[in-house]
Design goal:
P-loop_NTPase; 4 iron, 4 sulfur cluster binding; 2 domains; Rossmann fold; ATP-binding; ATP binding; 8-stranded mixed beta sheet; binds adenosine-5'-triphosphate; alpha/beta; GMP Synthetase, Chain A, domain 3
């Protein structure tokens, strides 16, 4: 068994999303062989890759079939999150910037942002959140850090903000700059300039994913964001309710306008159905059924998944500990699946654009 044999076998294994083989994608590294034992590393495009186990299985199968049926194969799965943002002057160490938007308020955009951030971080990704929701900045509450304030450092004669860090997530919120009751009086230009400061005068360090919790609807903030920094894409959060869907459609259309032109990474359907804690098998479609899925299909964008309406989601949000911290909770699994799908779609998009 030689290194060349192993590479030849792995060159027959396709990365299912990117539709190219692992060797030409440069995903196989550190091959070591001792007798019948072969070890190597597969470098995935995201630690949240939902196809991890499938890829592992296909590698083992190829080596057993093409090299040695008795080989003992040990694969170390790591990830290097892909980016299209190399050498950009703003946030050069932030690989992917994802705007989380909704048409209507109260559909759970902030809840989804907080839980997606934690789910991505659970896979080993480095994650940050900018809470740009001037009408109701809720990250300080959802992460139980209301009294925290961003730090300040001096870097090459320039004062930079240092994000608050909670549960391994770096966070900046409009809510840290003004007492909660005052936040509503923030006017567009003030909020836009705070957002600019969060982006250009902050030491975020290295991040795989930066999530930006936008205000609901369409506003100056949305424009500031896309004009200040190249956003990788936007996620639209909606409930299946007709009025929410109509607004979500408007939000989606805004990102697609010529002067904004931000790709839609997918739709998340929140409060998809109510399920009581004591009867988890029962699903009540109180806001209607499949609205988010239909919206995604109609606009030919990915559907990232559905999150049920569950009392514990609201309670954990109010307590300042996103529900995904309760690991075997079924809702945590639903969020994890949405996060994996989002990371997968980002990796696919990065690969497609890189090829153009
Ligand atoms: N799936 C869910 N199950 C139960 N409660 C939820 C769910 N999603 C959100 N909530 C609750 O609904 C309320 C509104 O959610 P959230 O603040 O996340 O919405 P939002 O869209 O960010 O609102 P806005 O943009 O108006 O600030 C919160 O109390 C939250 O805990």
């Amino acid at each position: 068994m030689t290194k060349e044999d192993i590479l030849k076998a792995l060159a027959t294994v396709e990365e299912p999303d990117l539709k190219k083989d692992l060797v030409s994608l440069n995903m196989v590294q550190n091959i070591g062989i001792q007798g019948k034992v072969v070890r190597f590393t597969i470098v995935l495009t995201t630690p949240a890759c939902p196809l991890k186990e499938l890829i592992r299985h296909n590698c083992e199968k190829a080596i057993h079939k093409l090299v040695d049926a008795e080989a003992q194969v040990f694969i170390d799965m790591t990830a290097s999150v892909t980016t299209l943002r190399d050498s950009t002057p703003l946030l050069p160490k932030v690989r992917n910037i994802v705007a989380i938007a909704s048409g209507k308020g109260g559909v759970g955009k902030s809840t989804v942002t907080a839980n997606l951030a934690m789910s991505l971080a659970n896979t080993g990704a480095k994650v940050g959140i900018i809470d740009a929701d001037i009408f109701g900045p809720s990250m300080p509450t959802m992460f139980n850090c209301e009294s925290a304030r961003p730090g300040l450092i001096n870097q090459n004669g320039k004062q930079l903000l240092l994000p608050v860090e909670q549960y391994g997530i770096k966070i900046l919120s409009i809510g840290f700059l003004a007492p909660p009751d005052d936040a509503v009086v923030w006017r567009g230009p003030m909020a836009s300039s705070a957002l600019r400061q969060f982006i250009s005068d902050t030491d975020w360090g290295e991040l795989d994913y930066m999530l930006i919790d936008l205000p609901p609807g369409t506003s100056d903030i949305h424009l500031t964001l896309v004009q200040t920094v190249p956003v990788t894409g936007a996620v639209i959060v909606t409930t299946p309710q007709k009025v929410a869907l109509a607004d979500a459609q408007k939000g989606l259309a805004m990102f697609r306008q010529k002067q904004i032109n931000v790709p839609i990474l997918g739709v998340v359907e929140n409060m998809a159905y109510f399920t009581p804690a004591e009867l988890p098998e029962n699903k009540y479609y109180i806001f209607g059924k499949d609205g988010g899925k239909i919206l995604a299909n109609r606009n030919q964008v990915p559907f990232l998944g559905e999150i049920p309406l569950v009392q514990s989601i609201r309670e954990s949000g109010d307590k300042g500990k996103p529900i995904v911290t309760q690991q075997d909770n079924p809702v945590a699994i639903a969020f994890q699946e949405v996060a994996e799908k989002l990371a997968q779609n980002i990796a696919i998009r990065n690969a497609q654009v890189a090829l153009v």
